[in-house]
């Protein structure tokens, strides 16, 4: 136990030069991002390339909303994984659950602030909350606020309660002083008798997270899916499509993080090969399902019988203006699925191979989310408007990519503040591979 | 119309004369009007059932008015006889009190068969839970695109009136051609459609986009709007224009921005959404001569735009639709979207494959542009639509 405990606590107890360099680089990226945000706050959305669709021939939602959808998807996928692991008490996946809790929280926060950045009047974001009691009856954006709030509250509750349990098993004196301080705070008033209740709470909170992921988790998809004016958004598959993409990207993000952690800290004893095999199987399944759903979502639009508006959007995606991006994104999801299915054991043994395919899949989902948002706005239907154009400005790229780098920075810092799990106890429940 | 009281006995010659005089003034079929009024009294007294009343005049009413929307017409029902489901406020599944009163007024029942009409209306209101305070006024337009010459003066007048920057084309005239071998070029004059079932309102997360009760105009509360642009993606007509940049001196609106207790008239401040307000500041102006007018309507040299209360038969749009269409077809834009727009067009409807083309009168002639500041210049017709 002591050996694995040391492995588990390695991120907490060591600070390498490489780590400091990474934090420095990410820190600089964060500062540049903040500068871009301040720039946009000063001059307004005019610093983007967004414009009204119609006579201005622009797209009115762009990179920010696409990146929002990507983060929201990862948040949903992360909490689904956390919920499953906690509910089934898959102890060997404990570190995976902790990664999911932290990444789900960071993704949810990133999604939330990207929405604020996209507002023309970000200073008025509270108006959305004050009007919520009325607008929640019909406005999908109000539903989304509700969902993201529930996600943040439930995920942070899960994080706090599971940390309370983990800290209670640890000798706080062996931890760095700031971690020990967090540990003391989180185990305030802890009594050994509450342990049984705590385990039970984590289990049922896990079920609640699962339910939230599979119900409210569709809301960011409906945000686009209920808009009847935009061909390519409207339709019954939007929620499912979002959920599938979310499960894929959430699990991919967790697998990527786990692979990097294992590689950097040599955590072989606590992140065993079969954990990566399990994650790989989940990724194979979710990737496959996502591709099937996209296939089903897009293909009908290019059949000769498709309505004009839908076919314009579909054709631009499949062999028009966006074809290169679209097919690269599809390849970035489909090829890893194929690779995972064929070379599973060899690929996954170290976790590094899985991290690489996860990164590729994450990129694929990112591009597809952007296309989903931009497309219908660029190809308006109904009135005789022209096809629009959209070339994101430097500010938009810096803020969007910066949001990703800031999220990574936050996670990197979190690994130095809280333990990534607890040492595997003597009794283990049979490890089940996540198979939805 | 005469305001003197009717004689009590509906069988008497005096009543007959009184009724005839009144119906005669309306220009509708006198026999039918008098008959309707007399039997409406009988319905009110309980001597005749609503069903009998409905059946007796159904054919004649259809002949005379083209529609039989009398309050006694059976309500639409589901197969099991239960009322159809409807979302409060949208009016689906039921006829509105507004349309009942409108029809009642049209056939002279407003004064003659008042008691019967009132009785039915009360029943309908009780059934649907509708309040009695809903205004009967719905502002709208009849736009005769057959007359439009594409001079773009309405666009210019709109931006002048509302102090809009050059790229916020609340009124836009699109020049387009159809792929139908006729080589005809047409214009589409496109303000906000001020829909009765406006998707932009449903999308709005802050209640900033609203329809005002008084006259059904759809407005944006500039103090509430967060600039999320959900209204813009939800609108099938593309009439919303965010104020992307600080308008600075470009915002030259000099009127009162207050509409009731909200700030909703004139150009949109930076970061908020603007669109055609039907010149709300004119409707609320102290100068009564401005009521019922808009800048685009006033300036149109060919009298193509007619603004007024769509529920008032004597209003400019209704009169235009009744008398001046010259046999041209009428339509509402994208009705299949279910938005219930309040602009009625006279002329040819643009097909889904219509292509926008550059007009002989470009926006350059006025202080109007298409591209928003900071974006590359738009060349009309430079894109291949089926790219």
Could you report the average pLDDT of chain A, rounded to the nearest whole number? 92
> Uncertain segments of chain B of ≥5 residues (pLDDT<50)?
82-133
Rg calc of chain B: 24 Å
Which percent range fits the helix content of chain A?
Answer: over 70%
Largest sheet data of chain B: 4 strands, mixed
CATH superfamily of chain A: Formate dehydrogenase/DMSO reductase domain
Descriptive report:
The complex is a heterodimer of chains A (about 425) and B (about 375). With about 425 residues, chain A is mainly alpha-helical. Chain A has one domain (about 1-125, about 135-415): Formate dehydrogenase/DMSO reductase domain (Formate dehydrogenase/DMSO reductase fold), CATH 1.20.1630.10. Chain A contains 16 helices and no strands. Chain A has helices at about 1-15, 15-45, 65-90, 95-120, 125-130, 130-135, 140-170, 175-185, 195-215, 220-225, 240-265, 275-300, 310-320, 325-350, 350-380, 395-415. Mean pLDDT of chain A is about 90; it is low at about 425-435. Chain B is of the alpha+beta class and about 375 residues long. Chain B has helices at about 15-25, 30-45, 50-65, 95-105, 115-130, 155-160, 200-205, 230-235, 280-285, 295-300, 315-325; strands spanning about 140-145, 170-175, 185-190, 210, 220, 240, 260, 260-265, 275, 305-310, 330, 345, 355. Chain B contains eleven helices and 13 strands. The chains are: A mainly alpha (about 425), B alpha+beta (about 375). At the A-B interface, helix 5, helix 6, helix 7 and helix 13 of A face strand 2, helix 7, helix 8, strand 6 and strand 13 of B.
């Amino acid at each position: 136990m002591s050996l694995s405990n040391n492995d588990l606590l390695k991120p907490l107890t060591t600070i390498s030069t490489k780590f400091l360099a990474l934090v420095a680089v990410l820190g600089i990226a964060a500062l540049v991002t903040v500068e871009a945000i301040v720039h946009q706050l000063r001059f307004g959305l005019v610093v983007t390339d967004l414009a009204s669709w119609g006579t201005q021939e622009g797209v009115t939602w762009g990179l920010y909303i696409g990146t929002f959808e990507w983060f929201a998807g990862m948040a949903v996928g992360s909490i689904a994984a956390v919920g499953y692991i906690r509910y089934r008490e898959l102890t060997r996946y404990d570190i995976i659950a902790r990664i999911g809790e932290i990444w789900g929280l960071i993704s949810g926060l990133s999604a939330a602030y990207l929405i604020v950045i996209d507002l023309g009047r970000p200073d008025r974001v509270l108006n959305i909350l004050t009007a919520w009691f009325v607008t929640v009856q019909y406005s999908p954006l109000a539903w989304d606020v509700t969902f993201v709030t529930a996600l943040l509250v439930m995920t942070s509750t899960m994080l706090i309660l599971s940390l309370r349990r983990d800290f209670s098993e640890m000798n706080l004196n062996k931890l760095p002083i700031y971690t020990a301080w967090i540990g003391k705070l989180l185990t305030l008033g802890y009594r050994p008798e509450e342990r049984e209740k705590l385990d039970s709470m984590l289990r049922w909170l896990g079920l609640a997270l699962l339910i939230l992921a599979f119900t409210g988790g569709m809301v960011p998809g409906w945000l686009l899916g209920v808009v009847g004016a935009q061909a390519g958004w409207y339709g019954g598959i939007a929620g499912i499509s979002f959920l599938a993409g979310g499960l894929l990207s959430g699990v991919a993000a967790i697998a990527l993080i786990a692979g990097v952690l294992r590689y950097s800290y040599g955590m072989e004893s606590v992140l065993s090969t079969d954990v990566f095999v399990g994650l790989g199987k989940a990724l194979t399944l979710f990737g496959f399902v996502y591709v099937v759903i996209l296939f089903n979502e897009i293909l009908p639009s290019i059949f000769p019988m498709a309505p004009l508006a839908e076919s314009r959007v579909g054709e631009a995606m499949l062999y028009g203006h966006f074809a290169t991006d679209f097919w690269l994104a599809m390849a970035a999801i489909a090829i890893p699925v194929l690779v995972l299915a064929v070379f599973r054991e060899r690929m996954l043994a170290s976790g590094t191979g899985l991290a690489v395919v996860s990164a590729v899949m994450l990129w694929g989902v990112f591009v597809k989310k952007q296309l989903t948002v931009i497309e219908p706005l660029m190809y308006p239907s109904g009135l005789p408007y022209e096809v629009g154009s959209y070339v994101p400005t430097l500010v938009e790229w810096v803020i969007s990519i910066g949001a990703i780098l800031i999220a990574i920075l936050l996670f990197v810092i979190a690994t130095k503040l809280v333990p990534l799990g607890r040492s595997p106890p003597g009794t283990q429940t049979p490890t089940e591979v996540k198979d939805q | 119309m005469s305001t003197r009281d009717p004689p009590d006995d509906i069988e008497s010659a005096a009543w007959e004369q009184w009724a005839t005089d009144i119906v005669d003034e309306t220009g509708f079929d006198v026999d039918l009007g008098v008959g309707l009024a007399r039997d409406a009294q009988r319905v009110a007294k309980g001597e005749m059932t609503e069903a009998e009343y409905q059946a007796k005049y159904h054919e004649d009413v259809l002949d005379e008015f083209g529609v039989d929307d009398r309050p006694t017409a059976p309500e639409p029902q589901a197969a099991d006889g239960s009322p159809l489901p409807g979302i409060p406020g949208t009016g689906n599944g039921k006829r509105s009190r507004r349309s009942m009163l409108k029809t009642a007024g049209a056939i002279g029942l407003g004064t003659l068969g008042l008691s019967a009409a009132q009785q039915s209306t009360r029943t309908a209101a009780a059934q649907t839970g509708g309040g009695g305070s809903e205004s009967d006024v719905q502002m709208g337009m009849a736009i005769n695109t057959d007359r439009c010459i594409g001079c773009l003066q309405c666009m210019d007048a709109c931006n002048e009136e509302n102090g809009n920057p050059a790229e916020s084309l609340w009124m836009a005239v699109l020049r387009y051609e159809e792929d139908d071998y006729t080589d005809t070029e047409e214009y589409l004059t496109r303000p906000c459609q001020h829909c009765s079932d406006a998707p932009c309102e449903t999308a709005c997360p802050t209640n900033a986009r609203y329809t005002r009760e008084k006259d059904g105009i759809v407005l944006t509360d500039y103090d509430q709007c967060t600039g999320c642009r959900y209204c813009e993606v939800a609108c099938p007509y593309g009439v919303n224009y965010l104020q992307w940049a600080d308008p600075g001196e470009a915002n030259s609106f000099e009127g009162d921005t207050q509409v009731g207790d909200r700030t909703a008239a004139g150009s949109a401040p930076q970061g908020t959404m603007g669109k055609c307000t039907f010149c709300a500041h004119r409707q609320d102006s102290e100068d009564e001569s401005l009521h019922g007018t808009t800048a685009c309507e006033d300036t149109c040299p060919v009298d193509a735009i007619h603004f007024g209360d769509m529920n008032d038969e004597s209003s400019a749009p209704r009169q235009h639709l009744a008398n001046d269409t010259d046999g041209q077809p009428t339509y509402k834009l994208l009705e299949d979207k279910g938005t219930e727009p309040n602009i009625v067009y006279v002329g040819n409807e643009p097909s889904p494959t219509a292509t926008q083309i550059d007009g002989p009168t470009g926006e350059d002639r006025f202080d109007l542009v298409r591209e928003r500041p900071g974006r590359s210049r738009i060349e009309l017709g430079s894109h291949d639509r089926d790219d």
